[in-house]
Design a protein that fits this description.
Elements: H1 2-33, H2 35-51, H3 61-77, H4 87-108, H5 113-150, H6 159-187, H7 189-195
Helix pairs in contact: 1-4, 1-5, 2-4, 3-5, 3-6, 4-5, 5-6, 5-7
Amino acid sequence: MEKDLRRKIVRLAVWIAVIFVALTAGTAVYFGSDTASAQEIVAMYAPKAQDMIDENGALSIIKLLLSNIFACAMCVGLGFIPFIFLPALSVISNAALIGALLGLGAASGIMPVAKTIVFGLLPHGIFELPAFFLSMAMGIYLCKQLSRKILGRAKEERVLPVLNGLAKTFVLGAIPLLIVAALIECYITPALMTWAGLS
C-alpha cells in the first residue's frame, strides 16, 4: 500500500513539475512585457520575504525553514477540502511569483535570466522545489481520494492508511529536502550570486 502510494505521489509530482516549469516560463515571458503587473505580484510577497530577514540583515535559516515547512504543510492540508483541488493554486501562485521575478529582472536588465536561474534558483531549488512538488501532489491526491470517498467511488479504500502514508512521505521526504534547501539558500546561494555578479 505505502509503496504504491509513494509511486502515485511521485508520478503526480513529476507532472506537477512539468506544469510548473511551463507556467513559470510562460509567466516570465508575459511579465517581461507587463512589468507593472510583475511589480504588483512581487510587492505582494515582499513583506513575507522581509519577515525572514534577521536583525543582521541576513536570511534567517530558522525562519526560512519554518516558513517553507508551513507552506508545504498547507499544500497538503488544503487537500482535506474535497472537490475543488485547492493545492493546485499553489502551483499557479508559485509559478507566477518566480515568473514575475524573472520577467521583471529581464525587462530591467539588472537580472540576467540564465545566470539568475543557474546561480540564484537552482542551487537550493533542486531540493526545495521537489519538496513543494511532493507536497502539492500529496494535497491533490488527498483531495481526490476524499472526493471519491464522499461520492462512494472508493468504498474499498480506507482513508487512514492514505493519511499515514502521506504523513510518512512528508516527514521523510519533504522535510529533509527543505532542510538541505534552507542550508544552501542561506549559506551558498548568496555567495554564488555575489560571485556571478548578481548581488
